[in-house]
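notes to self, project folder thing:

trying the whole complex as one job this time. last attempt i did each chain seperately and stitching them together was a nightmare. two parts in total, labels are on each line so i dont mix them up again. if this works i'll redo the older ones the same way
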Amino acid sequence: MATFVEQSINGLTIGSFYALVALGYSMVYGVMKLINFAHGDLFALGSYLGYTLLIAGSSWVTMHFGLWGGMTIAMLFAFVGVGLAGLLMERVAYRPVYPTGRLPLVVSALGMSIFLENGIMAIWGSRPQAYPAAVVPSTRFSILGLPVTSLQIVILLLSFTLMLVIWFIVEKTTFGAAIRATALDRSTATLMGIDVRVVIFFIFALGPALGGIAGVMNGMYYRAISFNMGWAYGLKAFTATILGGIGNIPGAMIGGILLGLMESLFAGYVSGAWKDVFVFVILIAVLIWRPTGLLGEKTAEKV
Amino acid sequence: MATLLATKNLVVNYGAVQALKGIDIELGEHDIVTVLGANGAGKTTLLKSISRIQTIKSGSIEFKGKDLATVPAFQLAALGVSHVPEGRRIFATLTTEENLNLGAYGVRNLPAGKELQKTKEWIFSLFPILKERRKQLAGTLSGGEQQMLAIGRGLISKPSVLLLDEPSLGLAPIIVQEIFRVIRQIHEEEGVSILLVEQNARKALSVARYGYILELGKVAIEGEACNLKDDERVRAAYLGGSKVSC
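result (full assembly):
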């Protein structure tokens, strides 16, 4: 029972940053119909940006703004930094190849992924780095007898808040309706007076920016970060996206949380070493038996 | 009649194929003009060029004396040009009401407040069924309802020109009647100028003042709708040979 509770809390925590990364994946896919393979590397970039800010001047930020202040600033820094990187990426790697179709776009995304991964290695080195213990909130306490850390609570609350905000923007506002319209039919969206470029901008800034925050969360949670971690996380978030139903916002959230839980419980009860294999077995199983995911892409087609 | 919209020597290419080979058409204020022709004659291309979602090779599109060729497509709605595309193209997974609201997206002086609500009520009075369906996903509407929604979505920006692309396509005759009744009504009561592309020549000529007949990217015949109905060539090719009284 203790293992179950512990692994479930752990699973919820990592599931919530999978969900954030998956959300970005799904948003970009929904509007661009592009599997952005560089998305995981943007997540890694967020991890490194947060790390750099927190260790700069030996925890100067943490000293002046406190543990929570430092964490907030690091997340904002990663949010903005990775958002800008996302915009830049759209400009240099994707926009020039839009007219040539979807396949060149995917190849460009793969190239961007390799570029980012190696860029991170060139700047921060090939050896793993560690978030110093002093910058990570780690008070332990128990809620209703469940053992949790303050970091876990923050990660959970923040992820759910962010997801709720995104859901609200996309589903309940006029701009959100414009995003959904653009995803469905770009030229008709233009006829409505929607500037499709603004929508694409928004998507390519916000999607990666969410991944950037998740990167900082991940860094704080596991402490160790490495230049090539983006690939594995990208694939896991991709799995979460497929599991929930790609192009579907609640789907990405549910997929992320479920995947985190399953991975964690598998690691706790079966084998920690085989957990990644388990995750990709799930991916393959979903692709075979339910390729539209748990929620599927919403369709209301009447011919 | 003062000219509202005019194309001059409009040329559009699809790769090596010339789709429009120099088209001149004119639409006045408070006017209905129809563009007829067989499939592939260039009717839809003409409308898409006017609303700027199709790039043109050469020629000009003047609206209220302003050349539209330099205006980005998404700004046209704000200028007062609204395009109801062929095949309705409603946003299937958005609700009826969201579809309508998006029609006003580009129009800054129609904020989501009272004015929009008033316009929406007007559209519901034209098509009462849309009011009943407002919370329903647009993709679940019937073909006729979708066409009504597409027209309503085009009207909610209060355009001075409405470009209508085959509003009768694939609809039951009774719905076609309904659609044409509304076309007449918005023209007569609100003074909206309409450029109507149709395959149903008989219907189109019955509401229009003037007509153009496109053949292979060129204006083959043009004239007052009344005269076109009497034209031997038009009767043979587009009106099934029968005589239609004016």
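what i see at first glance: The interface with chain B takes residues 174, 177-178, 180-181, 184-185, 187-196, 298-302 of chain A (CB under 8 Å).
need to look closer tmrw
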